[in-house]
Amino acid sequence: MGSYFSQIVEEMEQQEQQVVEEVVEEVMEEEKEVEEVEEKKEMEEEEKEEEEKEEEEEKEEEEEEKEEEEKEEEEKEEEEKEEVEEEVK
């Protein structure tokens, strides 16, 4: 009779241990998934920041080119004006 109860207790302990192992495994999988999602989010944020930085650099470059063109245009107009003044004299 005693061995019957000890066998039942042992089976229950084995089942409990199996449930504990399954829960631990599920928790570890969920933590891994959360970590992967966080890593993906981080990567997306880094990509976004990089894109914004590139856009800003392009914008600055365009501004500089525009300013340079305007400056060249002004110099050209100034030269033409001087030439006309020379011709008038």
From TrEMBL:
Amino acid composition bias (Acidic residues), ranges on this chain: 22-37, 44-89
Segments for region (Disordered): 1-89
Protein name (Swiss-Prot/TrEMBL): Uncharacterized protein
